[in-house]
Design a protein that fits this description.
Blueprint: H1 2-8, E1 15-17, E2 20-22, H2 74-82, H3 90-103, H4 106-127, E3 135-137, H5 140-148, E4 158-160, H6 182-191, E5 206-208, E6 223-227, E7 236-240, E8 245-259, E9 268-285, H7 292-304, E10 309-310, E11 316-317, E12 321-325, E13 329-343, E14 349-350, E15 366-367, E16 369-379, H8 390-395, H9 430-435
Antiparallel strand pairs: 1-2, 3-4, 5-7, 6-7, 6-12, 8-9, 9-16, 10-11, 12-13, 13-16, 14-15
């Protein structure tokens, strides 16, 4: 009964503050609220401002509140029957005006921001990295739905973020769309048509006796691995990846034997050998369903190169490869000592389901980002590893480079004819280059 009394007669509520009886709306401990609204007439104190709208703004509450003990009036009776019953009443327009004013106040903007934060968290949980399906709050929907409430029509209060479903990465170097719209997805699944997916990522494994397919050399840094045919036919297998390379290292070493003689404190050294090892990492993204099959078939083939190849007689033999990374190394023969596949957690997984959660027959449940870490490559040079001859230093023409460890596109040692022996794309000219710095005169 006490609660009923408080609700029906607020002035009956008493509590103590600082030891003194607290009297509502006056007395010790009273803190004036941001707006003073008379219970009887619904007017506001203009000196206090309303909800941050300024000192002389009209209040959001535009209709006087009736006394608690007042009886039903024709206005409230009619409004109660009309509201939400398909008839636009005066109250509908008043409600629309009030919600419009509220949304541009500080509290209204905070409300919209909180709603958007909650929706963003839901988007991340539901859609992960698929930003195309993210949704945003439509603030205008609150006003629209208030105005349309009597009609029963409801306006959706969110809209798709729309990270451009037709956004493309197509450019000079053959990069194709990261995201595709539904029509493009269908075309990519059925025809894998060029121009819809990344042509280098979707390039298949292929055999060739005449070098790489030029259609797959459009990347900024051409990168491919060639598996040399062990039968000696020259019909080698080519593997192309887009050159998302990191951590390229090229280590050179000289081996020296130590000798100590009795009565001598220092050591003596005799040269015994040379070594070289390259290492790098590669990131392989799967940007669309159409790229899944080609990417994983190439990764599987690369992993199989660590296993032996068998002759018809049953003898096992290892696999030799050639690697090209831009013009730094060109068709450099050697062996791959190891590869490591790490599936990037940030890339997520393709769960092979459509928007309705149904499994799709042309997709696979696979990671969408693969980091090939620590590819360890030991070259077997097709020239004699030796100190570059002095003839190269004094030639002034770039000829006689008999040890092209860094190839500049060169594929063989010294030889050939003309001004570009050995196949240099851009002949080095050490004498003229060094003279610019005063090293050679």
């Amino acid at each position: 009964m006490g609660l009923v009394k408080i609700l029906t007669d607020p002035n009956s509520f008493r509590f103590y503050a600082n030891g003194d009886p607290y009297i509502p709306y006056k007395g010790k401990g009273y803190v004036a609220p941001p707006r003073e609204l008379s219970w009887e007439d619904g007017t506001a104190d203009p000196s206090r401002g309303i909800m941050g709208n300024g000192a002389k703004s009209k209040p959001l509450v535009t209709t006087p509140l009736p006394p608690l003990n007042s009886a039903q009036t024709p206005q409230t009776l009619i409004d109660g029957l009309y509201r939400g019953q398909g008839v636009l009443s005066r109250s509908t327009f008043q409600d629309t005006e009030r919600i419009s004013k509220f949304l541009i106040t500080e509290q209204g903007l905070q409300f919209i921001a909180k709603q958007q934060a909650l929706l963003l968290a839901q988007n991340i949980r539901q859609f992960g990295n698929d930003v195309r399906r993210y949704q945003l709050i439509n603030p205008a929907s609150y006003i629209e739905n208030t105005a349309l409430a009597p009609t029963g029509i409801n306006v959706r209060n969110t809209f798709n973020f729309g990270l451009n479903p037709t956004f493309t990465r197509e450019g000079t170097y053959g990069e194709m769309p990261t995201f595709a719209n539904e029509r493009q997805k269908a075309a990519a699944r059925s025809a894998r048509s060029k121009g819809i997916v990344d042509s280098i990522t979707t390039s298949p494994l292929y055999n060739s006796k005449n070098g790489p397919n030029k259609d797959y050399l459009t990347d900024t840094v051409p990168f491919y691995i060639v598996k040399i045919n062990n039968d000696g036919s020259g019909d080698n297998t080519y593997i192309h990846f887009r050159a998302y390379l990191t951590g390229l290292t090229d280590n050179y070493g000289a081996e020296w034997n130590e000798t100590k003689y009795m009565g001598r404190g220092e050591k003596f050294f005799s040269y015994s050998g040379f070594s070289r090892d390259l290492g790098f990492s590669l990131q392989v993204p799967v940007l669309s369903r159409a790229e899944q099959s080609s990417v994983y078939s190439k990764l599987n083939y690369l992993a199989s190169l660590m296993a032996p190849d068998y002759t018809e007689g049953g003898f096992m033999r290892g696999n030799l490869v050639k690697i090209t990374i831009g013009d730094y190394i060109t068709d450099l023969p050697g062996i791959i000592r190891g590869v490591n596949f790490t599936y990037n957690d940030e890339g997520g997984w393709d769960i092979a389901r459509n928007e309705l959660g149904q499994l799709e027959s042309d997709a696979y449940i696979m990671p969408k980002m693969i980091d090939i870490q620590s590819i360890s490559f030991t070259p077997i040079h097709n020239f004699i590893p030796q100190t570059v001859s002095n003839a190269f230093v004094v030639s002034g023409s770039g000829n006689n480079v008999n040890a092209p460890f860094i190839t500049f596109g060169k594929t063989t040692g010294a030889g050939g004819s003309g001004n570009n022996p050995g196949g240099y794309k851009n002949a080095q000219n050490p004498s003229s280059t060094n003279s610019n710095f005063g090293f050679l005169r």
